[in-house]
Every structure is written in structure tokens, then in C-alpha cells.
From TrEMBL:
Family annotation (InterPro entries): Integral_membrane_TerC (IPR005496)
Record keyword GTP-binding present: no
Main location: membrane
Superkingdom as given in the UniProt entry: Bacteria
Signal peptide: none
Membrane protein topology class: Multi-pass membrane protein
Transmembrane segments annotated in the record for this chain: 6-29, 41-64, 70-94, 149-167, 179-197, 209-228
Protein name: TerC family protein
Amino acid sequence: MADVLIPLLTLIALEVILGIDNIIFISILADKLPENQRAKLRLWGIGLAMVMRLILLAVISWILKLDQNLFTIFGMSFTGKELILIAGGLFLLYKSTKEIYHKTEEPNPNDPVNVKTSSFRKLLSEIIVLDLVFSIDSIITAVGMVQELWIMYTAVVVTVIIMLIAAKPISEFISRHPSFKVLALCFLMLIGVALLAEGFEVKIPKGYIYFAMGFSFLVDLIQMKTVGKSKPQDP
């Protein structure tokens, strides 16, 4: 029993950690929509992530080939997985940098970029791109950890259920606190750099990344509580 339970719980924990990046990205994009459409975008985004993972598991032999060298440039070889990670990292860096710029610069009401014109389809297409990147990374990690296919399927389904439950409170928290929104975007930049580095075969231990994210979150939380207490109370 332990031979099955321990790998299953370990894989679920790993998938949840990898899924946090997805939730943050989806939450920030959902904030661009009217309130009555945000839950729908979160549901579609996370649901498609599960569908992609299940489909990729079904074609696992093709996924394994993504770790094989495709070509070499200046003595550096590239695999299919690495090309996808590089593309995903660049996309994540572009999106997060763009969002930080619009959040921190003084808004101009006459500037068309400050008008919320994002459509549901456009945002969903951006989520699909990142879903694909995270899904391939997740499945290759899962294949390296366990051999039984049913354990991978179970871990994916359980992880998506956890993500669906956690998506709304995380999204609402980020929406209520602008400073955390900027911090979340910085997290996405960090993940983008990590994906880009991994694509060029530079391994950055994920533990360092998530420790830095957790420490930054704790500092921002303490600052928020301190500022809240220092504000004069209404009589």
C-alpha cells in the first residue's frame, strides 16, 4: 500500500506546486474581465489544463520523444521540451512585464491601452499557451517519478480539483490587494526566467524559486498587516 500511496501523494504535491503558477496567471488575466465572467474563465482555464494533461498522458510515448535532441547550434543541443520551455518562458516574461508596466505607470484615460478591451476568447487563448507549457513540463516530471499510468491520471485529476477549489480565493485575494498583484506578476517573471534557463539546460532548483516566492509573500503580508494597524481608526 505504501508503495502506491507515497508516490501518489508526492506526485499530487508536486503537481499542486507546479499548478500554483497556472492559478496566478489565470487569476491575473481573469481580473481583466467583468466579474460575471471571471469564474467562467478560471473554470475553462483550469479545465483545459486537466484535458491537456490527460491527452498528453494518453500519448506518453510522443512526450518521451520531446526529451530527445532535435538539433545542435554552436555546440548546444535542443530538445522539443526545451524549445517549448523557451517559448513559454519568453511569453511569460512578455506578459508579466507588460502587465507590471501598466500597473505601475500613471494611467492615462485617453490612452487606448488603458481601456479594458480584452475579450474572453483572447484571454483564454493566452491561458491555453501557458497550459500547454506547464502541462508538458508536468507530464515529463510525472513520467520520471512513477511508472504506473493510473497513478499519473489520479494525480492529475486530484490536482485539478484542488486547483478549482483554490482558484477563486486566490483570485479574489489578488484582486483585493494591488500590491500582491504586482508581487504575483513578479513571481510569473521569475517562473519565466526559470523556464527560459531550463530551456537552455541551466538548472535552477525549483526549491529556491518557491522559497523566494514564499518569503516575498510573507514579507508583503507582514507589511500589509503593519500598514493596516498604523492607519487611524474612524471614530
